[in-house]
């Protein structure tokens, strides 16, 4: 039974703790076999919201399959961070060195940094703390404006509610995206937001429970600027092109091409909103020129699953590139 240990430091944010704790608790209720523990450097831990929490001061025995999570705390800067006992830093470092996974939510990244776990790794934190994290740990690479970052079993997330996304991601890695979708549905939250916030707009198409479709969406999400032939997506998902088109449409209401185009348009809108020209935004997201982007932006509604946006979207020879 995998164990999830939350290291509770003074002034922690309740949702930084409660979000991921609810994910793993719900996973346990659904039979995925998690055991949760809450440890602190003292028994009574004050929270930022005024509700005290009782923690155990003795760490449980940890295995390589276990997870340690450090929720964040209130403080305008890391200089206001609570003191971290050397024994806690040592336990974080030793668990990772032994092959375990260590995660943080929001300001909890500072605890990982003090344990030496951010050196030479990519990481993130709340957008208001990113500059300071980069100055405090110059050997780390701070990835800005994303929900979470995974680097060599060190998982860091942005502020507050993003801890839910982090936890659902870890469940999906261990048990498959269908399990994460089942837990998210039970919690009435988005099935799973991707680490890169640029794709947040496409989340409405993630409320299904199909492992195959989630995996194809993961592939498209990570490579949406590239040509993605339907046959290649089908091969990667272990089904035929015809089957993939059918189940993808049943799960999302659109074709894989339409889904990729949606990601491209949303990313282009993000770039245009930050001052990019339509032409440069179009090329940045994978269009050969701005004509297709202008056509897609001009549509007021998402086209139906049968709409190809310029090609036979459902055919085996289709290439997911406009």
From TrEMBL:
Gene3D superfamilies: 3.40.50.880, Homeodomain-like (1.10.10.60). GO terms for molecular function: DNA-binding transcription factor activity; sequence-specific DNA binding. Residues 214-295 form the HTH araC/xylS-type domain. Keywords: Transcription, Transcription regulation. Residues 299-322 are annotated as: Disordered. It comes from the Bacteria. InterPro entries: Class_I_gatase-like, DJ-1/PfpI, Homeodomain-like_sf, HTH_AraC, INH-QAR. This is Transcriptional regulator. It comes from Planotetraspora silvatica.
């Amino acid at each position: 039974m995998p164990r999830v240990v939350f290291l509770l430091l003074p002034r922690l944010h309740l949702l930084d703790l409660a979000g991921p704790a609810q994910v793993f608790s719900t996973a346990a209720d659904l039979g995925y076999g998690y055991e949760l523990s809450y440890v602190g450097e003292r028994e009574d831990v004050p929270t930022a919201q005024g509700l005290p929490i009782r923690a155990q001061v003795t760490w449980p025995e940890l295995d390589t399959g276990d997870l340690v999570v450090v929720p964040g705390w209130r403080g305008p800067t890391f200089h206001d961070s609570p003191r971290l006992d050397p024994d806690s830093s040592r336990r974080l470092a030793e668990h990772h060195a032994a092959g375990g996974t260590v995660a943080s939510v929001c300001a909890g990244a500072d605890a990982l940094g003090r344990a030496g776990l951010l050196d030479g790794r990519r990481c993130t934190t709340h957008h208001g703390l990113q500059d300071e994290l980069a100055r405090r740990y110059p050997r780390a690479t701070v990835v800005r404006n994303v929900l979470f970052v995974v680097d060599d079993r060190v998982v860091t997330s942005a502020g507050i509610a993003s801890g839910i996304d982090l936890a659902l991601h870890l469940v999906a890695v261990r048990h498959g995206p269908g399990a994460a979708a089942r837990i998210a549905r039970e919690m009435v939250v988005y099935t799973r937001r991707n680490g890169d916030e640029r794709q947040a707009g496409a989340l409405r198409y993630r409320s299904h429970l199909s492992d195959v479709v989630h995996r194809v969406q993961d592939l498209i999400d990570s490579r949406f600027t590239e040509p993605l032939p339907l046959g290649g997506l089908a091969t990667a998902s272990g089904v035929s092109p015809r089957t993939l088109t059918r189940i993808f449409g049943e799960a999302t209401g659109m074709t894989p091409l339409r889904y990729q185009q949606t990601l491209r348009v949303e990313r282009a809108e993000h770039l245009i909103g930050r001052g990019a020209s339509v032409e440069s935004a179009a090329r940045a997201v994978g269009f050969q020129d701005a004509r297709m982007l202008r056509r897609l932006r001009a549509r007021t509604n998402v086209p139906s699953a049968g709409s190809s946006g310029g090609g036979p979207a459902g055919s085996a020879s289709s290439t997911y590139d406009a």
